[in-house]
Amino acid sequence: MMLPDLKLRQTPISTSPSASFTWFLETFKLIKGNLLQFYLVTLITPILMFLCSVFVPFLGIILSSIIYTFYCAAMFNACLKKQKTQSLTFSDFLTFNPQTIKPLMVISTLFLSLNILFSIPFQSSISEFVKIIAMENKVIEDFSYETLSLYFNEIQTKYPEITSKLISSFAIFVIGLCIIEAMMFFTPGIISIHKNINIMDAIKLNFIGLLKNSISFITYGLILSVILLCLFFILNFFGVFLFFMLLKVSSFAAYQEIFVEIKTNKDHQAPYNNTDLDSRDF
User: Under a CB-based contact definition with an 8 Å cutoff, are residues 253 and 30 in contact?
Assistant: First the structure.
């Protein structure tokens, strides 16, 4: 059976707000019959990231960033393989084109650098805040929300500059994380599937696709929020992993509608240039 080739659009298209529902329907089709593989890979990834961060000094942070980047790419590769062949094994999550490994390493380094950059002010503010708490020498026996809120208000009254700095640095940190996650939403998958694309072109396409479909992604975010609450209420901690699995698989479905032209012929495609972006064949 002839499998469809994927060709990356020069310009991402805009979708209707209802497109997010289509993405989730496609998500359930992709995970059907392979839920265990998708879930276990999603479960193992944060465990490996945690172990690297805790037991490998300094390099553990770098390894965690690399693991997350390759996880994002692996989910796209697995979804594409499942869509083309209707079958999936654990080895498919570990199959990468050699040409894409170096760009993915660069993306993970960029991801880590931005993460550190945005976290520095927040870490500095936390250190100052901890010193103030130590100076106060006050023992907190009740860690309820009301007690902690009163204690924070008391600190805020005595040291307004420190607390305002903590709040503003936290806001910067959260905004930074949103920017990083936006950058990582499609970029690793695009690089992994379209092996000849330039890294900056992939990042640019990623942001253009998100901006042109901002309304669709607002709807998408609302649906994900409901799913997260339901999964956490039903499955508690394990529901969070299931949520991230759905997030990554649905992002592949969104990628296909926004970025991809479906072709059914096997004509030879020209190498990547400014006007033509080729996909990787399995």
Answer: yes
